[in-house]
Amino acid sequence: MANLVDQMSAAESAKDVYRLEQRMLREMKENITDQCVQCVKCTAGCPAMKLLELHPHEIMALFNLGFTEELLRSEVIWTCLTCFKCKERCPQKVAPVDVILLLRSIAVARGTPPPAGFASVLQALMDRGIIQEPVEVMLKSVKTGKKRFSDRSGCSLPAASRPKDLEKFKEAFTNALVQAMSEEGT
Amino acid sequence: MKYALYLGCAITTEAYSYEMSARETLSRLGVEFVDFEGASCCGVTIRSINPFAFLYLSARNIALGEATGLDIMTFCTGCRMTLLEAKHVLDHNEKMKERVNAVLASEGLEYRGTSQVKHILELLHDIIGLEKIRSSLVRTFPGLKVVPHYGCHAIRPSGIGPQDDPEDPQKLDDLIRLLGAEAPYYPQKLDCCGAPLLLKNDNAAFTLSGQKVKSIQDYGFNAIVTICPSCQKMLDTQDICGRTIGATLNVPTLYYTQLLGLAMGTDPDRLGLGMNISPVKRIIEWGKTTAPA
Question: Which of A65, A109, B188, B205 has CA 20 to 30 A from A3's CA?
Answer without folding.
Answer: B205
